[in-house]
């Protein structure tokens, strides 16, 4: 790690040295225009180099990152003004250096461009502006990269949180479902009913679904329908002659997918909280597909809506819908005229 750091610093120093050597060549070419005294031009350029380097580094390592990037504009303007004043003063000294030490007070012996303070200042600040521009571009790219990384981390955190919420909701559904089913089996076992083996087989199928498919983010709708049918068959055994249930499916696409255990809680609640009227618990379930839209409706005889509001299933299903299909579903629940109705339209377009 230390070797890489040292190597990186050496490479950085070499690149800086190469760049400033290029600036020196630029100065000798610029100030050597219309002058044949190479010794004068080189000495003048060398004298100007520390001024250029110092001014440039003050801007790119202090003023720009500390004040401009952090939007401290007043301090940026103030310190920029200080730097310009000091650098212009030093540039003026370089002009006098050319006049006094290099030309021995002979104005005509000076390189023509080096006589003009404005041109010398422009040459210095051309370098400063170019380097500052590259520094701003580098800082901007670094900021964009950091922003992208931060957004990625936020999205990953949100995704993990979403997955944990879904797992928690599923953990609540499983015991709720198993509790109802095992209670039914217990009642059959006590009566030593002939249907008990078939019920165990149905429960085995449901447990297989719970253990191996429900942890997937999405399952085929046709598989979920088979699971619902198994559940309904179990309930038929439990209710015997007191159940009047209709389950209709239409236009079910074989490749359409849905979140597992999404529809079952509605059906569970219709059995758990539905009311027996005139000796029957009436339930009607309709499931149809239209393109990528799933239309699900269920209605059952009922008394009060309070029992539904207290159930785990409906509360969980609302949360799961918000997590998985936010903005892509419509859910209406009503309880009127002794009928509890659920209408769900689900858009599964990815």
TrEMBL record:
Domain Signal transduction histidine kinase internal region, residue spans: 165-242
Keywords noted in UniProt: Kinase, Membrane, Transferase, Transmembrane, Transmembrane helix
Sequence intervals crossing the membrane: 12-32, 38-61, 73-97, 117-137
Source domain of life: Bacteria
Molecular-function GO terms, alphabetical: kinase activity
Name of the protein described by the UniProt record: Histidine kinase
Source taxonomy: Bacteria, Pseudomonadati, Bacteroidota, Flavobacteriia, Flavobacteriales
């Amino acid at each position: 790690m230390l070797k890489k750091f040292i190597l990186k610093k050496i490479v950085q120093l070499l690149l800086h040295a190469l760049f400033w050597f290029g600036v020196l060549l630029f100065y000798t070419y610029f100030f050597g225009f219309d002058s044949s005294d190479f010794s004068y031009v080189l000495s003048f350029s060398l004298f100007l180099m520390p001024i250029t380097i110092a001014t440039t580094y003050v801007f790119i390592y202090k003023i720009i990152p500390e004040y401009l990037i952090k939007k401290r504009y007043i301090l940026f303007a103030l310190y920029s003004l200080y730097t310009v004043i000091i650098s212009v003063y030093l540039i003026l000294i370089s002009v006098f250096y050319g006049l006094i030490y290099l030309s021995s007070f002979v104005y005509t012996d000076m390189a023509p461009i080096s006589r003009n303070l404005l041109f010398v200042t422009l040459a210095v600040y051309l370098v400063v502006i170019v380097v500052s521009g590259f520094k701003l571009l580098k800082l901007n790219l670094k900021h964009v990269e950091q922003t992208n990384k931060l957004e990625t981390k936020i999205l990953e955190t949100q995704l993990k949180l979403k997955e944990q919420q879904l797992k928690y909701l599923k953990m609540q559904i499983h015991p709720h479902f198993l509790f109802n089913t095992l209670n039914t089996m217990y009642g059959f076992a006590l009566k030593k009913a002939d249907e008990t083996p078939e019920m165990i087989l149905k429960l085995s199928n449901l447990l297989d679904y719970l253990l191996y498919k429900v942890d997937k983010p999405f399952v085929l709708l046709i598989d979920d329908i088979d699971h619902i049918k198994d559940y309904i068959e179990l309930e038929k055994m439990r209710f015997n002659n007191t159940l009047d249930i209709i389950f209709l499916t239409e236009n079910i696409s074989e490749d359409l997918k849905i979140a597992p255990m999404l529809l079952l809680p509605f059906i569970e609640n219709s059995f758990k909280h539905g009311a027996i009227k005139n000796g029957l618990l009436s339930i009607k379930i309709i499931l149809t597909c239209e393109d990528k839209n799933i239309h699900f409706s269920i209605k059952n005889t009922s008394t009060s809506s309070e029992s539904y509001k207290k159930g785990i299933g409906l509360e969980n299903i609302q949360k799961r819908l918000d997590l998985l299909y936010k903005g892509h579903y419509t859910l209406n629940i009503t309880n009127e005229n002794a009928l509890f109705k659920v209408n769900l339209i689900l858009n599964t377009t990815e």
